[in-house]
């Protein structure tokens, strides 16, 4: 039997609903109750690392989790790791681990949309599916995976798409890379791009701002009242912004702060095509780095990570084209 480590960090999978219909964390993390059943699929060791709702997870916590996983793998040689996590920020932790953990064993993130005592609770099946995926040799060297609702997604592409549906995790541009049926784990794609960056910390101050019609440049004053290490901007469509905010971004670039552009569309890449004021071509000429399809929250994680390697525009542009 494969040796699988399950690391609990909290989230709805470890919560229950009370008489007033409030959903709250359980002291003992309810997922532990599934442990005997999980042993059918693997030799499972379970640790309660944290018990946080995922809006409480920070990049510093993600980094602690990375170090913990690495240490456990080094010391105990597990065949795979499953992390239970709240769904709100799960994609950020999954992507952070994907680009910072240099491991070939499967690392799978999962959680639940319904708390442990709700009718149709999805936590137990997601956890069992995740252990099955982590124990499957086909899952090696595929980067960090997200398993939800019988689907396997690559950390790079997956995002939370629905506030409450159990099928919330989707990879809008590419679909899942595999599925889980009653008897087998089936892959039909493998991620082509694998990135790894050695890091020391996850402390960079990198805000994310979203473009809206009629955006007021004064909203961005905060960028000059604190030490900002980098900025990610979710632009319109192909990568265009309201002209009024461009001088603000220019001032920030003059201060040496790298800016990465993504699209607020959930499909497609930003490109330097439009040559009007605020258009993508002008933004690229200004020195803004164009990302290739990452959403805003993941581009922010990547910038926090790669700023530890370089602040050079050309090098950042190369890394964000991968
Ligand atoms: N379904 C969930 O896990 C949502 C919860 N608010 C969390 O992220 O912790």
TrEMBL record:
GO biological process entries = asparagine metabolic process
Keyword annotations from UniProtKB, A to Z: Hydrolase
Q: Please tell me whether the keyword Hydrolase is annotated for this protein.
A: yes
Catalytic residues in the record: 12, 87
Organism placement in taxonomy: Bacteria, Bacillati, Bacillota, Bacilli, Bacillales
Record-given protein name: asparaginase
InterPro entries, A to Z: AsnASE_II, Asp/glu_Ase-like_sf, Asparaginase/glutaminase-like, Asparaginase/glutaminase_AS1, Asparaginase/glutaminase_AS2, Asparaginase_C, L-asparaginase_C, L-asparaginase_N
EC no. given is 3.5.1.1
Q: Which domain of life is it from?
A: Bacteria
- Residues binding substrate, per UniProt: 54, 87-88
Q: Does the keyword Hydrolase apply?
A: yes
Species this chain originates from = Brevibacillus aydinogluensis
Q: Under the GO molecular function aspect, what terms does this record hold? A: asparaginase activity
The UniProt similarity line reads: Belongs to the asparaginase 1 family.
The record's listing under Pfam families reads: Asparaginase (PF00710), Asparaginase_C (PF17763)
